[in-house]
Design goal:
This protein is of the alpha+beta class. The protein has six helices and four strands. Helix content is 43%, strand content 10%. A four-stranded antiparallel β-sheet has the order 1-2-3-4.
Length: 158
Amino acid sequence: MESEDTITTSFNGLEIEQTRDYIAVRVEIYIERIAANHGWESETFLKKPKALLSETLAKEIIESGKGPLSKSPEAMVLQNEMGFLYWMLLGELIFAYVVARLDIGYSMSLLSRYAEYPTKVHYVGLKSVTRYLRETKNRPIIYWRKEPFMELAKGSFA
């Protein structure tokens, strides 16, 4: 990224907040876009976010094994029943994980193992991660400055 005269506030789907003491990176708008693309924007938020994957769901995912091959007729029936492409949502969530949401790493690692052979429980797991991200969409990853950059305002996390 080339140096600019103004402070960067967004880059490639990220929202960037630069303050005197830190740089915060969020993917709030990106997460909202994912939910809207899948028709889940009107689902209600919880006051207290649930875990990414409940202990029971994680166990079911591990024990379920492989489903039908992703391009098979059985897989197409499951995909139509669930209403979204497994690998597409998986890729969207991996982007959020890589750039700013490290908290979903274990879930993404677990669910990506089944990209070619998902079962219904794997689809439920991806939707659960998406719901968690929507409920916590404003959580940033924060990079603290070694030295305060006094030309900028003080941030809310300082």
